[in-house]
Fold each of these.
Amino acid sequence: MRRVGFVVNPIAGMGGRVGLKGTDGRASEARARGAEPVAPRRAGEMLESLRRLRAASEIHWITCQGPMGSDSLASSGFPPSTIEIATSPPEVTSSEDTKVACREFEKRGSELIVFCGGDGTCRDVFDAVGRRIPILGVPAGVKMHSGVFGVHPATVAAALDAWLQGFLRIGDAEVLDVDEEAYRRGDWEVRLYGTAKTLVEPALVQTGKMLFAELSDEAMKDEIAEHVKETAEKEPDSLLFLGPGSTVEHIATRLGVGKTLLGVDAYRGGKIVGTDLDEVGILKLLEEQKNSKLIVSPIGAQGFILGRGNLQVSPSVIRRIGVSNVIVVATPSKLNATPVLRVDTGDADLDREFAKKEYLFVVIGYRTSKLHPIRS
Amino acid sequence: MEKRDPEGWMRTEYENLVAQSLDWKLRTLQGPNARRSIVDGKEVVMLCSNNYLNLSTHVKVKRAAREAIRTHGAGSGSVRPIAGNMDLHEELERRIARFKRRDAALYFMSGFAGNAGLIPQLAGEGDALFTDELNHGSIIDGVRLTKAQRFIYKHNDVADLERALTDADSKFKKLLVISDGVFSMDGDIAPVGDIAKLAEGFGAMVYIDDAHGEGVLGEGGRGVASHFHVEDKIHVELGTFSKALGVVGGYVAGSNVLRNYALNKSRTWLLSGSHPPATTAACIAAIDVLETEPRHVKKLWRNTRYFKKQLVSMGFDIGHSATPITPVMLGDSAVAKRFSERLFDEGVFALPIVFPMVAKDRARIRNIVTAGLRRKDLDDALSAYEKIGKELKVIP
């Protein structure tokens, strides 16, 4: 039996649907606004998935009495003999209870701690156990930028299963957090809080959205923009589709044109020839066009270059442009925080065509590229 | 419009650095860099110099410098291509070539000047350059001056390099692979043997910056290429006299054609005044010492093994170094800074490497063991480490 700590932050995620951008210090306000608990449901989803996997019976759980752990385990059908109660938190819980629980898990010999919450909970767990014990997060918060979270509850179960079978390594992952007070004011300050230990399986564990090397990100965006500008000038007849995101927006600025932040725009011969295009608009432009290129930047840490946030770039659009004319750009720090590039175009054959390449060159600076793994 | 303040921007930038504690606070050595130096008025055990073999104060090296001033004067009077090419420079280059077991060598003002001057001449438009993601800043700057396409491969990852080379093979004319031999932050060694063998298959040129391997690795301190027995597969070996050899100045060693090409093309070489006689003669003497007194390299490794072993037995995490560069991992940047200050109080000079050079919780103190340290110096440093480690609860 492997000893695994398990803690649920029952109030995590409550701030999300009611627009509080996080539940730090705002739990009672969230409740007053009619927020429903999110975390117990997410914990349940993970445990249900896990129970269907072979390795589930090999876990001895160390957890908290009640909604912070044992309730979820019991209702997902884990037998009481496999559940050890480490702490009995009060009815109204706080972040201190998470820390107390994790310290107790450590004392009782947990090899791994699975927690259910968001970046705030992650911070608490990390504060308690540091780099001594690997941690794995079931995403249930408002913000989950830290690299220890599975993409969704079922992938956490799969990661746990793979770990029990010895397929995963212990590696590093950034613990990040957005300053919630600043975020509520409209500022976006992602900070690196620390480097935790986690289970490493790039396809399953979401990596932090950004890294500490943000200092030079603007300079790197300038370089990437210069590179694309040079490419565009070499082929003035070529049609350039500019995907969404701030890196590509920066390229547009360098090309001397304005661009929609979240849309796909088209550029040719020094000017914008299409703004916020839909699939039909893109295909229409492509009708008369010989060569074209698509500039995209991976989204967040999940690494999607196609199929998330740019659905207008449909499979027929990509086929028309050509897989080899998709240019991926990313600043070095963003790429570092993105373990693998992914495509989900909705067309399995096309996805396979990308996946078959195994690695794509990503432009990270002026005339500078780096190979990065790609999967579908 | 308000009148411009020509220096105002600099003040702002500098104040920003100070506000983030990113500015360098210079320490001053009163007297030589030695096993114990006077730093800011205080005697300390030196654990952060690159003076690996303690040659900067070697009697033969100092004597050679004095003698050269007597015979050749204080300065060279010109750049090498015009009237500043002295017999001493040529002798040094022959000695470097012999020591490195190569055909020829060229002496630069510094290792930085070697990288910044030569790399841009080795690859141009239509060529491709492959560089390790953790290469030294002077390589990065040299690379930025080229018109070649640059491919950054993962640190010490030969498989990643192979993928990049394979993809670039048909698209580019010349291919050039550049790596540090020893990486100065962690002290790990590049897989130079594998890199060289891989590059050979593609007809790629291999360029190794061995600033931290010179005098440390290989037979008699001949460097990383000797360590892996691939001297014949490395086209450019860049080294420096400012670290293990205890003087100053960089060099490249390789074929005759490399030397002839480099001295006609490298702007940092062509346009810098040449090294003064004292420096040049001291470098020759440093090579003499390396060739005739093998004890220094042996002592360096004996000290390194002892220091590392003791640190580990006290419970410190010393990372994955394979060289005298010995990081003591402390995690938190504030702890690392505090640790370093306390070390200085206790008479030990070792610098903290903190955020943003490394992530906030991967901060460390970087120690560099040298051959000059006596057992007592190491023991004094180790007891300071033990005392402060317990004080700051880094070790039990």
Note: The interface with chain A takes residues 133, 144, 147-153, 160, 163-164, 167, 331, 355-356, 359-362 of chain B (CB under 8 Å).
Amino acid sequence: MRARVVVTLKSGVLDPQGKAIEGALASLGVEGVASVRQGKVFDIEIDAPDRETTERRLRAACEKLLANLIVENYAVEFV
Amino acid sequence: MRAAVILFPGSNRERDVARAIHRISGVAPSIVWHQESELPAGTDLVVLPGGFSYGDYLRCGAIAARAKIMAAVREHARRGGLTLGICNGFQILCEAGLLPGVLMRNSEMRFICRMQHLRVENVQTPFTRAYAPGQVLKFAIAHGEGNFEADDETIRRLEDEGRVAFRYCDAAGQAGAANPNGSTHDIAGIYGGDFNILGLMPHPENVIDPLVGGTDGRGLFESLAA
């Protein structure tokens, strides 16, 4: 099964990288960009009997390693 | 004092801190590879050195915090054993949950490598008893992610319980005037556990010799060796 884990910074957490990208986009003339927040995407191939088990395992992976829950949120998507 | 310095792939300050401990305590530390499952018998002090463990992949310190040796480090800390994390070691202690909070990217986005003044905030701990209350120190800093952040309640608890170890300040000891990275309340280092765990971003091991920048770091190792 293929799944995608998306890890994003919680709102209110300062994201200097996002700010820098925002500035660069403005300097390239990309109009209308109000803000940029940078996150991470993990594409994961996983063997599991069903979708529910897959999701449970990936949520555990997020909580153990992929996300720092102090400052990050995560979401599991199936692709 | 028997010290063990943990070596992760990408650590690069292990020899400096081992040399500082050897010079000041008279006993050479063991260097312990991260895949070991036990610390040397009789270890009094565990040091997580600076560097870029695992190339800072995923998040600074995140992968090292899950290394095999960390179960033994956690047990050592839980028993009250002295545990010191410097720079990347501080990030590893936060990622391992041995210290609260997280070290985020510097607010000005730059990697900072220069000398920085710090104020000693609590001298009644095994790490700082050789210093004077409020003493201003000049340490080296070298980091891209040193911006300490935690929720309001955690910050309040750290402040109320005297768990802020060092604060960034100017040469006169004024906090709020010389924050290099955006760290909350100018925090440069914090205590965890029963004050047996210290994490700090600045490098005391850089400043133990007058030939290379000063001796303000000696007090930390003298405190530990006392």
Note: The longest helix of chain A spans residues 51-66.
